[in-house]
Amino acid sequence: RWEGGWGFQIRQEHYGSDTLLDGSSEVSNAFGREKSIDTTWLEGIYTFRREVRLSLKLPYVDQSRTVVRDGVAVRESGTGVGDLIVGVPLKRYENKPASTGNIAFTPSIRLPTGSTDDDFPVGDGSTDFGVSFSASFEQADLYQYYDLFYWANTGGERGIHEGDELGLDINIGWHPYHDN
């Protein structure tokens, strides 16, 4: 994890819904519209110095949705490698006898490596820019992570523009066993 250190992990995400909303109200879904997205992330990190890292995140996406065209329900799908995210986490650490923590600023770029060929494309063909401000804290039995992020998404191929994103991730973990 420190200077010259590296690592990787594989992470799985699933999202699915068949709920149709008009604003915040659920409405009838007579055509059976739905959306399902499974993403497997290959994530890697290299540490130049304790405070400076390089992160790579490459998704493999398998997704489908039902949309309505000309009054007919149509199933669309897309599968393949998505858009590569490259980030440079810049961290400041605070280590105490019973805990550790850090704050980070992470500029990122999302490169158009995903295909836009499918009827439900896994990439949008745009180069996007992101920034993240995060803080994490860890004790022997508790882990906390807070991340406020923003993506400025540019226009992609085939008229795809996903709009900018602002979000907050909160992760809280419990270590049921700790031996060191």
Polypeptide structure, described:
The protein is mainly beta and 180 residues long. Helix content is 0%, strand content 66%. It has no helices and 12 strands. A hairpin with a 2-residue loop joins β2 (20-22) and β3. The model has no long low-confidence stretch (mean pLDDT 91).
Output the keywords:
globular; mainly beta; two-stranded antiparallel sheet; 10-stranded antiparallel β-sheet; 180 residues
Number of distinct helices: 0
What radius of gyration results from the CA coordinates? 20 Å
The total count of strands amounts to 12
SSE topology string: EEEEEEEEEEEE
What are the segments in which pLDDT stays under 50 over at least 5 consecutive residues? none
Helix-and-strand structural type: mainly beta
Helix content: under 10%
Separation, N- and C-terminal Cα atoms: 17 Å
- Indicate the mean pLDDT: 91
Largest sheet: 10 strands, antiparallel
Estimated share of beta-strand residues:
over 45%
What's the overall geometry? globular
List the helices and strands and how they pair.
Layout: E1 6-17, E2 20-22, E3 25-27, E4 34-49, E5 52-69, E6 72-81, E7 84-87, E8 90-96, E9 99-111, E10 128-139, E11 142-152, E12 165-174
Antiparallel strand pairs: 1-4, 2-3, 4-5, 5-6, 5-7, 7-9, 8-9, 9-10, 10-11, 11-12
Short description:
The protein has 180 residues and is mostly beta strands. It has no helices and 12 strands. The radius of gyration is 20 Å and the shape is globular.
